[in-house]
Design goal:
heterodimer; A: alpha/beta; MetI-like fold; Rossmann fold; B: alpha/beta; six-stranded mixed β-sheet; four-stranded antiparallel β-sheet; ATP binding (chain A)
Chain lengths: 618, 274
């Protein structure tokens, strides 16, 4: 940790910098003001109730004392009290919250419920009660605020610790024989320190306000001592005659609060090794953002602006009878190229597979075709059209929604857990086709029965969590088919499913293709799956099409391209049992037909095995 | 069904791990569910048992019971003929270690690789300095550059993190290792690398391993014996090669026929109702 990296770290963290500057200035004031200004702040003079002027910037109070000087001198006492109260509640609260997790089950539950009810109780009221019981005074105000702040820290610590305690690394540490208290100190507390520091800073701000409130109502600091709350209390009787008196303590309170918050945010990002020092994480690759689109049909999504590069008529090298024509598709996120000059066509009734490892751009292509690219990702193509529907520019939303059906990878994330399936599955039909509700429901029951969903009537009244993943995936296929789309895009639709369920869902894709003649763009990382389902298969690597082959060739293993062969050889099912799998890294240095299968089996080759920068999915 | 498989290696007579009529219930009272129903199997020393099952079959529960997270409601787990001690600490660590499924959440993001591995070597103090050479050894054992030890987990790819997890699990020299779906989050090529690494380690260190997976094709590569779980019942147990060639239970046959690329796979069949 050289000094210049520290400097750079601070410079890249504006909230830390500004928070530190503000609180630093306040600290200087707290140190310097009492010895320098206590004269003008505490000496009674005859210049009572003066307005703002050159000699007294904010005027004087009823006893002729300088208002600004009093506010500055009060900084020390106010900050000390707030800091003491916050520190006490932080230490006690975190200790309680963390230790609760070492307690046996029944005690833990009891403590958590007690903490919950304590949090529900307004902290200022609690503080008022404690201060009233203890009697007015500075000490009792600190104790009252400290006690009132404990439940907040305890609950946050307990909640955060519970989520961290579920992580595999805590389980592993326990397996390794690390004692409970050590796990707490080594793994749990460091990993929850970010939110705790943010709470610490906001709690400091709250303590500041609460202590000032106590002093304001006369339960805190007593004459002749004074803090900002006390100053506000003294200013209250003359607030209309002399409004400038309340200004100084109020501004000081606000500035301190803002400073503490900024510092807390800054420190939180500083202590995290994932954010410190390194440049801000790059935008998620579209591959990772694929399943993030919430609706099960692209209808709700505003189509991303697709820009036609060059004249749209230049459809060189594309078959005129293709249903979907993609020519020269290039997708960029910032200065990174996710998809580089990809062209293919899908004829009516054809199933085209896109296969490749993560980061190869297969989902990005699908999302570009569906007009669902995430923000900040731009697509260019010389031609991108579905029949007569030009997908460049802004195609009519309704046609987009009815002519392209989409099935996503995660059947559980695709559905809104709060709504019944009937509402969600019939949405496209009702909204875009104007089908009456009852008719749409009947159609859906028939569609579900077609795709072998048991008890389709009852399913429509159920919520998504009541169905298995395979049932949900079949339901979302049925939903995507309601508009009888010309093209069905399926993005890793079977990846999240068990193997027997996967086989069944694949059969449904095949059946739909046979019965409705629906063309499909089928995306998968599983070369076995695309092999059995697809007519044509494009093999992608690093955003480029490196091989075009057929499902039959994949099944028979009669592929010629070195990368496709490497993928097949790495597939466990294809190799003989017991023998070593081929794990050749095919580096697409030149993505021409050059067989550059130099077996760089070494793992220093980070670029090949998913460079962490591109892993936006976790 | 509680058959005991004979080891492919007959000279290892006494099994290292014996699970006998193990039943596990999760939840309490009315919400209690019987997740494992009288499961029995042996793992001979130096061999690998693959446990296959789909989601909800109870395979992860079995792993977690073996490492002491869940308590069996009946049945016995014997290691070298002695009941598996649920005690933690160094003795427990040297008995069983687990390689977790998710390479992303299995490392504390705030600790360097060296710190994480030092903890495996010395759970109490976890000091890096005295064990640096041993950490370098562990890293090269899984084909990672020893220079990597001062980096943080997020600087590694998924496959590299899984190698780190393997290195950490082997650090206390456990008597047997549980690998819970360790390749399911990985790309094909990365998965192949990890499987080859495991095969290599099994040979070199004669590891005793319970390899859990939903993927039959993967299992075929790393196991001597295969066991199939269906809704908490062990429905199939036998030598890997023979089981793949001629499964005894119809469910195993269905599983095998569901793998795209397997000669038994048919897309145009009428769907098999389960």
């Amino acid at each position: 940790m050289a000094t210049d990296t520290t400097v750079r770290r601070w410079r890249r963290n504006p909230s830390l910098l500004s928070g530190a500057v503000i609180l630093g200035l306040l600290l200087v004031v707290a140190l310097v003001a009492p010895p320098l200004l206590s004269g003008s702040a505490e000496t009674l003079t005859d210049d009572a109730r003066l307005g703002p002027g050159a000699e007294h910037l904010l005027g004087t109070d009823a006893f002729g004392r300088d208002v600004l000087a009093r506010a500055l001198v009060a900084t020390r006492l106010t900050l000390l009290m707030a800091a003491a109260a916050t520190a006490a509640s932080f230490v006690v609260g975190v200790a309680i919250g963390a230790l609760v997790h070492l307690a046996p089950g029944w005690l833990r539950e009891t403590c958590l419920r007690l903490i919950d009810s304590a949090v529900a109780f307004p902290s200022l009221v609690l503080a008022l009660v404690i201060a009233a019981v203890l009697g007015p005074g500075m000490g009792s105000a600190i104790v009252a605020i400290a006690v009132a702040g404990v439940p907040g820290f305890a609950r946050l610590t307990a909640n955060l610790a519970a989520t961290v305690a579920d992580k595999d690394y805590v389980l592993t540490a326990r397996l390794l024989g690390v004692p409970g208290l050590r796990i707490l100190g080594r793994h749990v507390l460091p990993n929850i320190s970010g939110p705790l520091l943010v709470l610490l800073s906001s709690s400091f701000t709250l303590s500041l306000l609460d202590i000032s409130s106590l002093s304001f109502v006369g339960l805190g600091v007593q004459n002749p001592q004074y803090d900002w709350g006390r100053l506000l209390n003294e200013a209250l009787p003359s607030i209309f005659a002399q409004p400038s008196i309340v200004l100084a303590p109020s501004i000081m309170l606000i500035v301190t609060g803002v400073g503490a918050m900024l510092l807390g945010d800054g420190v939180a990002s500083l202590v995290d090794p994932r954010t410190r020092g390194t440049a801000p994480a790059p935008a998620k690759t579209a591959d990772a953002a694929g399943p993030a689109a919430p609706a099960q049909d692209g209808a709700a999504q505003a189509p991303q602006a697709l820009q036609a590069s060059g004249s749209a008529g230049a459809a060189a090298g594309t078959e005129p009878d293709g249903l979907l024509t993609v020519a020269g598709l290039t997708v960029r996120a910032g200065d990174r190229t996710l998809v580089d000059d990809v062209s293919f066509t899908i004829g009516a009734g054809q199933i085209v597979g896109l296969v490749g490892e993560s980061g190869s751009g297969k989902s990005t292509i699908a999302m570009a075709v569906a007009g669902l690219l995430p923000e900040g990702v731009r697509a260019n193509a010389s031609r991108l059209a579905l029949g007569d529907l030009d997908l460049l520019g802004t195609p009519p939303e309704r046609r987009l929604a009815t002519e392209i059906g989409i099935v996503y990878q995660d059947p559980i994330g695709t559905f809104n857990p709060a709504l019944r399936l009937g509402t969600q599955l019939t949405e496209v039909a009702r909204v875009h086709l104007g089908t009456p509700r009852r008719q749409a429901a009947q159609d859906m029951v028939r569609a579900l029965a077609d795709i072998h969903v048991t008890e389709p009537d009852r399913r429509l009244r159920q919520h998504p969590h009541e169905l298995s993943g395979g049932m949900l995936q079949r339901a979302s296929i049925a939903s995507a088919m309601t508009t009888n789309p010309r093209l069905l895009i399926a993005d890793e639709p079977t990846t999240a499913l068990d193997v027997t369920v996967q086989a069944e869902v694949l059969r449904q894709f095949r059946r739909i293709n046979r019965e409705h003649g629906t063309a499909m763009l089928f995306i998968s990382h599983d070369i076995g799956v695309v092999g059995v389902l697809c007519d044509t298969v494009l093999v992608l690597h690093g955003g480029r099409v490196v091989d075009r082959t057929t499902g039959g060739d994949l099944r028979r293993g009669t592929v010629t391209h070195p990368y496709t062969r490497a993928l097949l050889a790495a597939t466990p099912a294809a190799a003989e049992a017991g023998g070593a799998l081929s794990a050749v890294r095919w580096t697409a240095g030149a993505h021409a037909a050059q067989p550059s299968g130099a077996p760089s089996d070494d793992l220093s080759d980070k670029a090949a095995d998913r460079p962490p920068a591109a892993e936006g999915s976790r | 069904m509680s058959a005991t498989a004979t080891a492919p290696d007959p000279q290892t007579a006494a099994p290292l791990l014996r699970v006998n009529d193990l039943t596990v219930e999760l939840g309490h009272g009315a919400a209690a569910r019987r997740v494992l129903k009288g499961v029995s199997f042996d793992i001979p020393r130096g061999s690998t048992l693959a446990l296959v099952g789909e989601s909800g079959s109870g395979k992860t529960t079995l792993a977690r019971t073996l490492v002491g997270v869940h308590r069996p409601s009946s049945g016995r787990i014997l290691v070298d003929g002695a009941p598996l001690s649920t005690s933690r600490g160094r003795a427990g660590a040297a008995t069983v270690q687990m390689i977790p499924q998710d390479p992303y959440s299995s490392f504390d993001p705030r600790r360097t690789v060296a710190q994480s591995l030092a903890e495996a070597l010395d759970p109490i103090r976890a000091r890096v300095k005295p064990v640096r050479t041993r950490i370098a050894e562990l890293l090269s054992q899984v084909s990672l550059d020893p220079d990597a030890m001062d980096r943080y987990p997020h600087e590694f790819s998924g496959g590299q993190r899984q190698r780190l997890a393997i290195a950490r699990a082997l650090a206390p020299r456990p008597r047997f290792v549980i690998a819970d779906e360790i390749t399911s989050a990985l790309d094909l090529t990365t998965q192949a690398e990890i499987l080859n690494l495991l095969a290599d380690l099994r040979r070199r260190l004669s590891l005793t391993m319970l390899f859990i997976s939903h993927d039959l094709a993967v299992v075929r590569h790393v196991s001597d014996t295969v066991a199939v779980l269906l809704h908490g019942d062990l429905v199939e147990l036998g030598p890997t090669g023979a089981t793949f060639a001629a499964p005894n239970h119809p469910y195993t046959a269905q599983l095998l026929a569901s793998v795209p690329g397997d000669p038994r796979f048919r897309l145009d069949d009428e769907p098999a109702r389960t």
